[in-house]
Design goal:
Elements (H helix, E strand, L loop, with lengths): L12 H8 L3 H35 L4 H16 L2 H24 L8 E2 L2 E2 L14 H34 L2 H9 L4 H31 L11 H9 L14 H30 L11
Antiparallel strand pairs: 1-2
Helix pairs in contact: 2-3, 2-5, 2-8, 3-5, 4-5, 5-7, 6-7, 7-9, 8-9
């Protein structure tokens, strides 16, 4: 990065570390923290949205919709997360390429399934091999968001379903007594008041989601865990900046990062719980 970094072997310790910590790979390591934060921020709307839809589906008066909501929440919660994190991106990727293959290469005669290979025509590849690197990164990141959303949306649905059931029945009956429709009761009574019951569970789910962000590494996204492992591993003299195994220091940085993120999250959910509880009375344990 700096002109004096052209010959690392001639640098003193201070300047050596200044050059070492500003290499291109280290800069990508620093940016990867933003990748984790972006993942968390982008996951909030789909997780909450899927959770709300799943909870409403489980309360639906229509048996097929109710069965679908129950199947979604039960199946996803009962299968190890890692299976979904690996299956969903692969299934989506191959599904998209299969559709593109059928649309763009109708004259293709070779089988798509060739042993363990999924071979579509070059024009159907998603993204195209000629696409810039950022397109490949964005595509992989998008598939990861979908996988996370499906998994954690099921957990959110179960939490919200329980929160809706916790709303006092008397308030529902009061709404029915004054002539409110089911939709009005849902919108004016159920949804506003369920949050005070849902937030404790959602806060725990958020913490689990934070701990699950290192799984990005398994999905092919170059996140902070990937760079910590790559940069911290022992580098011999064939590298410009040789050093012993420093992974403990890099993963120590990740430890501090996740602890700080968890602390900020706890403060944030405490504030949200305070706001959600304004104007609402809950049953006291001493009554």
């Amino acid at each position: 990065m700096f002109d004096f970094c052209s010959d690392p072997a001639s640098l003193s310790d201070g300047w050596w570390f200044a050059c070492y910590l500003t290499t291109a790979k280290h800069l990508r390591f620093y940016l990867s923290f933003g990748t984790v934060l972006a993942l968390l921020a982008l996951l909030v709307p789909p997780v909450i949205g899927l959770g709300l839809l799943g909870a409403l589906a489980r309360r639906s008066a229509l048996a097929p919709i109710r069965a679908f909501g129950w199947a979604y929440t039960s199946m996803v919660r009962g299968i190890p997360d890692i299976i979904f994190f690996l299956f969903v991106p692969i299934a989506l990727d191959q599904g998209i390429e299969w559709l593109r293959h059928k649309a763009l290469c109708p004259g293709w005669t070779e089988p798509i399934r060739q042993g363990n290979d999924f071979a579509v025509c070059p024009a159907a590849k998603m993204p195209l091999s000629s696409a810039p690197a950022w397109v490949h990164d964005t595509y992989g990141f998008t598939l990861a968001i979908i996988a996370y959303s499906i998994v954690f949306g099921a957990f959110a649905a179960n939490i919200m379903h329980g929160a809706m059931q916790a709303v006092p029945r008397g308030q529902i009956e009061a709404g029915e007594a004054i002539g409110m429709s089911r939709l009005q009761i849902l919108w004016r009574i159920h949804l506003p008041q369920m949050w005070i019951y849902a937030l404790p569970g959602l806060s725990n789910l958020w913490m689990i989601l934070i701990k699950a962000t290192p799984l990005l590494f398994l999905l092919g996204v170059e996140d902070i865990v990937y760079y910590a492992r790559e940069l911290g591993g022992m580098k011999t003299g064939v590298y410009a900046y040789p050093h012993p195994d420093w992974r403990v220091w890099y993963f120590g940085v990740l430890l501090v990062f996740y602890l700080a993120l968890s602390w900020v999250s706890e403060r944030g959910f405490a504030r949200l719980t305070e706001l959600a509880g304004r104007g609402q009375s809950t049953v006291r344990s001493d009554l």
